[in-house]
UniProtKB/TrEMBL annotation:
Peptidase M1 membrane alanine aminopeptidase domain boundaries: 224-441
EC number: 3.4.11.-
Alphabetized SUPFAM superfamilies for the sequence: Leukotriene A4 hydrolase N-terminal domain, Metalloproteases ('zincins'), catalytic domain
Keyword Coiled coil included in the entry's annotation: no
Domain Aminopeptidase N-like N-terminal: residue ranges: 14-189
Protein name: Aminopeptidase
Length: 788
């Protein structure tokens, strides 16, 4: 059967406002709905076409004119045909319908409580699932206002985007909540939640009420998100010089949630591990993650909600910008976190790793059918998008960036915009050719490899020839059209960052008065979205002083060299020689990226039969740092020491470190005896679980902990441990456990990928599972399963 060609909705009828009344049902998991849509008919017609999915229609009318509904499941549309033509002008479309609370984590779905056998309801409408809750124009350009009423059992709380204006008790034991009308907005930002909640609350400097909703009894776990949320809202209002336009900002933890979070205007939904933090049970990494995710979603309240992309082709504008702004906000609110140092490993190099593949895609790609949208909610849209925006920010400066953003957000408030609109505002603010430079970064896949070669070096200084080619992870450096690259560099004689715009395939850079025992490093602070390959002279000048560079530059030196080795441009021996220069490294953010490179070498060594030799090398590299920080917190710890402790000991867990094995066995036994105990430093809990798991002969104790831990964060750490067991028999049982009801669907993939990454045996086991369960995976529902 031939698939119907995708078409966007017709433009002869447009929505103005929705008046929606839903009756959720937590017993039948079906809901009844009534919606009255005020529309503007732009040309005479007898048909109105909108989106709909998993909805049964009871009846419909337009004004007093009767109408029929014809749903098309394949195109997820419904066509309403009236008995008489509709004249040009405004009309009211009224539809009664029935929908389902599915368990696919999309639409208006059901979610099971963390530690109780009861359900609540939540929504996830992005990108195209509002149509599962009501018939609507489910495209971002069709903005409208929404008045919502929800009728729920009296014992339940019902939340939506706006504040409650009325609550009426009904005779059947239900209560109907009515909410203020929303600003004009896209359908994917509409939201409802129904359940039994506690909350903590506070207000911003401008009086915005902020609440963090949790399951009953754990509201204290929302305290940090509340603090961070208030700080970020204050920061964004000041930075954009535009007030948050709603009277309240609710944020809620949802047990079953496919994405990390969703920026619904005024009711932001989060996977519980992305918003809950417990001082006694949570890791420092969790605290930082909560901060980053909260900052990201709140950035969307302006960039995405107030101003929205016209179509999903411009998705990167939403996600890339919010990802950059999350770091800018956290850097302002929590400067001791040094969060832009972390950006290099967690965002910048994640993007470069993917974009170096021939299978990558441009930041901005044409999107047609809605099924294509999920494919671009990926590392390129988020991480490369954020990285090129950061490059732009560093190039034009904070003042011009800030001015341009205010201009853009003011001009397009409550409207839709294109990428070119943003470039125009930033060009006007900076006086620089932003559009000309940035189009080369957003409109094509890949990035440049800049090769640096000494042309001359004498008493007058150094001249370096820079050459750009497209980096390819499989073919090395290949000829391609030139990028316009903002080149920056630092040198040994002073700390000043110099800049030059490289537009040609090759340029010479003169560095005056640089002695022959000095050094130069290009891409200072890793601000430009490119990699650098040095000739032997320049590399040997940097290598002895690499530990004196900034953390960002230390990461870049090893990461660029490692990428060159993988692509066959450089010998692996040079990387391993450099690796020994990092022994005793005490910065978490340097290790965060470096450990990934070393892990790949460990896997390669295992496949070549050199597993024990690789373990010995890694013990040599990691042990000095591990010994310096020990297992427990102490007064000498800096902010990031907890993350460092977890990382280096976690790497040694894979290397048969005798002292760690003893420590892990002792603490694992105590945890099994009492899963609620808080005797162990949370930053080391995952290390202990994973180390002990590698020694287990059965899953019994791990499953006991998985069941007994009260927080989802702890359960998630245990799932990683279960994925770390050794031996084909235990791996098979771990795979079965991943598919059991004990593991939430959203967490299944992390357990399975841990097994795959654990060893060659693990990869073989997962490959066999994929083949045996292919029917399951090809029908797997849930577009964000790998989003954290």
């Amino acid at each position: 059967m031939t698939k119907k060609e995708f078409e966007r909705l017709p433009k002869h009828v447009k929505p103005i406002s929705y008046d929606l009344h839903l009756h959720p049902n937590l017993e039948t998991f079906k809901f009844a709905g009534n919606v009255k849509i005020l529309v503007d008919v732009l040309e005479e017609t007898s048909t109105i076409k909108m989106n709909s999915a998993e909805i049964e229609f009871t009846d419909a009318k337009v004004g007093e004119i009767g109408a029929t509904c014809a749903a098309d499941a394949e195109t997820e549309t419904v066509t309403i045909t009236t008995a008489a033509p509709l004249s040009v002008g405004k009309h009211s479309v009224e539809i009664n319908f029935v929908g389902i609370h599915n368990d696919d984590m999309k639409g208006f779905y059901r979610t099971k409580s963390t530690n109780k056998d009861e359900y609540g309801l939540a929504t996830l409408f992005a990108a195209t699932d509002a149509r599962r809750a009501l018939p609507c124009w489910d495209e971002p350009a069709w903005k409208a206002t929404f008045k919502v009423r929800l009728t729920v059992p009296e014992a339940k709380t019902a939340l939506s985007n706006m504040d409650v204006v009325g609550a009426i008790k009904n005779e059947n034991g239900t209560i109907t909540y009515e909410y203020n009308e929303t600003p004009i907005m896209s359908t994917y930002l509409l939201a409802f939640c129904v359940g039994e909640y506690d909350y903590v609350e506070g207000k911003t400097k401008s009086g915005i009420l902020v609440r963090i909703y949790t399951e009953k009894g754990v509201s204290h776990q929302g305290n940090f998100a509340l603090e961070c949320g208030i700080k970020c809202l204050d920061f964004y209002e000041d930075y954009f010089q535009i007030k948050y336009p709603l009277p309240k900002c609710d944020m809620i933890a949802v047990a079953d949630f496919a994405a990390g979070a969703m920026e619904n205007w005024g009711l932001i939904t989060y996977r519980s591990v992305c918003i809950l933090f417990d001082e006694e049970k949570s890791t420092l990494r969790t605290k930082e993650r909560v901060g980053i995710v909260v900052a990201h979603e709140l950035a969307h309240q302006w960039f995405g909600n107030l101003v929205t992309m016209e179509w999903w082709t411009h998705l990167w504008l939403n996600e890339g910008f919010a990802t950059f702004m999350e770091y800018l906000a956290i850097d302002n609110c929590y400067p001791d976190w040094s969060i832009f140092d972390e950006f290099i490993g967690s965002t910048f190099y994640r993007a470069l790793d993917l974009d170096g593949l021939d299978s990558s895609h441009a930041i901005e790609v044409p999107v047609g059918h809605p099924s294509e949208i999920d494919e671009i909610f990926d590392t390129i849209s988020y991480c490369k998008g954020a990285s090129v925006i950061r490059m732009l920010y560093e190039w034009i400066g904070d003042a011009a960036f800030r001015k341009g953003m205010k201009q853009y957000l003011t001009k397009f408030s409550y409207k839709n915009a294109f990428t070119e609109d943003l470039w125009e505002s930033l060009s006007e603010a900076s006086g620089l050719p932003v559009g000309d430079v940035m189009s080369g970064w957003t409109g094509r896949l890949g990035f440049p490899l800049v090769s640096a070669k000494v042309k001359s070096w004498d008493e007058n200084g150094l001249t370096v020839t820079l050459t750009q080619k497209k980096f390819s992870a499989t073919n090395g450096a290949v000829d391609a059209a030139c990028w316009r690259i903002p080149i920056s560099y630092i040198k040994s004689t002073d700390s000043k960052i110099e800049q030059v715009l490289m537009s040609d395939a090759s340029i010479d850079v003169e560095i005056k008065n640089l002695p022959k025992d000095g050094w130069v490093k290009f891409n200072a602070g890793a601000t430009g979205f490119y990699q650098v390959h040095y000739d032997e002279t320049l590399f040997n000048a940097i290598k002895p002083v690499v530990k004196n560079l900034t953390p960002r530059d230390r990461v870049q030196v090893e990461a660029d060299l490692y990428a060159a080795c993988k692509a066959g441009i450089e010998k692996s021996s040079r990387f391993l020689d450099l690796a020994r220069c990092y022994k005793g490294e005490m910065d978490y953010n340097v290790w965060n990226d470096f450990s990934s490179s070393l892990g790949s070498y460990r896997n390669l060594a295992e496949s070549l039969g050199c597993k024990e030799e690789a373990k010995a090398l890694l013990r040599e590299i990691y042990s000095p740092t591990a010994s310096a920080i020990g297992f427990e917190k102490n007064d000498k710890d800096s902010h990031s020491t907890g993350n460092l402790r977890s990382l280096v000991w976690g790497q040694l867990a894979k290397c048969d470190h005798e002292e760690l094995n003893v420590y892990a066995a002792e603490n694992f036994k105590k945890m099994v005896e009492d899963p609620t105990s808080t005797h162990l430093n949370p930053d080391m809990q995952g290390v202990v679980l994973t180390t002990a798991a590698r020694q287990q002969k059965s899953l019994d104790d791990l499953i006991k902990l998985h069941t007994g831990f009260p927080m989802q964060e702890q359960k998630s750490r245990t799932e990683i441990a279960i994925g770390s067991v050794q031996g084909t028999e235990l791996m098979a049982k771990a795979i079965d456990y991943a598919f059991s009801d004990a593991v939430r669907q959203q967490d299944m993939t992390s357990l399975l990928t841990t097994i795959s990454a654990s060893s060659l045996e693990g990869r073989d086991a997962i490959w066999a599972m994929l083949q045996n369960k292919w029917d399951f995976w090809k029908n797997f529902k849930g577009s964000f399963m790998d989003v954290g």
